[in-house]
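Fold this: beta-N-acetylhexosaminidase
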Amino acid sequence: MSLPSVVPAPSSIVAADGAAFALDADTPIQGARDAAAALTAVVHARTGLALSPSTGSATGRGIELSVTPGGAAESYRIEADAASVVVTGADAAGLFYGVQTLSQLIARKGDGWSVPAVVIEDAPRFAYRGVMLDVARHFHPVETVKAYIDRAAGLKFNALHLHLSDDQGWRIQLDSRPKLTELASGTAVGGDPGGFYTKADYREIVEYAASRHMIVVPEIDMPGHTHAVGVAYPELAEAPVLTDQMTEQARGEGIAAPVAGAPYEGTVVGFSSLKIHDEATYDFISDVFGELAGMTPGPYLHLGGDESLGTDPHDFAEFVARASSIIADLGKTPIAWHEAGDAPGLADTTIGQYWGFVTPTGGMDVTAKGFVDNGAQLILSPADAVYLDMKYSADAPLGLTWANGPTSVERAYSWEPSDVISGIDDSDILGVEAPMWSETIRTLDDIDEMAFPRIAAAAEAAWSPATGRSDLRNWQSFRQRVGDLGPLWKSLGIHFHASEEIPWTTE
């Protein structure tokens, strides 16, 4: 008896004896209101059936959704047979994830629809399961962000990391520093229009994410990636530090090299820096993160800290120590890219985010392990596996290739989080995050093309049992299971990349 396809792979899935549950327009949905509404929406998208949820108790045939406390956080159970489908979550998030799994189980049966007889017990491997969207290189409006939240939540991600500032633009309105959006938000890569989120926009994103059991992690990248800050407040920024390679890259793009105080539309990285020894810089950091902390109910504020090539290493270490302490003093947990891991004085609660390769190079793993040695944890984002903006193939129209060349779906899947950094285990890993940088990404269709199906591989690394601990945790199983999601993704309006690596189901 074959198992139904579920992505990410659950902790336990057993095909049950007996007939499938027949789903039709008269199928009642009883139980938790929010979960019932989520299920009703996805059933309608997938099948065209307009079910009517009820908050009463289940009586006889139907779908029952409920929360029964006591299990692991975010865990759920599904039991389906010919008479009923019962989804139980240990908490509201677990019930929501159970609904997402149930939506994947719905299959065409003749002229109708059914849910196979099955028992699923499931819980996440890691507490933090993130996606990152770069809205600085190219700005993405609120509706696009909300659509990406829906897509990510359907694969059981629970964190949206927003990269809100970079050399090309500043994207969040702050009352304490109004010139950031007045002067530094209007540009993007390649001369495309910029934009920014008003405080009301940001609140809408945060609330929408919460309704899908996701937190928002805002990132203000510093001390590098800060040219836009210098456009708004030139007294805070150093002059660009350009190497010959940077100048040559700018020339190849046909875009002027960065000039202090002037908007920048290229993709060169590493040339900008804040003034490390000026107290006005730390007043700025206190203003920015203080206001952002009040707008962000989630526990994390991301201070960046990557590719600060224009900053002296000793100055960099001093800077990230002070910036992380400012965030910690606000009652938030700082996150920094792995370069900050060996900085003396780094706030001891600071979470590290590793963006090196699956096989580390240049001592990146040693630096990243500094966070663990400091008593904190790591988020793993190996660029040559889960950077969703990497090209699928050398001739693909979208994406980049710097992370060890193009990233196939198989390569995106075939890595194990506990094997990346020597000397750490699952207890040292907060989770996995799949970033989407936007140098070439302009629209929701672009996001879909680059994310799907590779985002599902990242979801499995974050949620499912470790490689070798489940018969499903292998490439051959994954490619079959993800291929079976094609009809669901299509019905949800996801313009996924129909990779030839995957045997796609068409109905």
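The CA atoms of residues 348 and 374 lie 6 Å apart. The longest strand covers residues 429-436.
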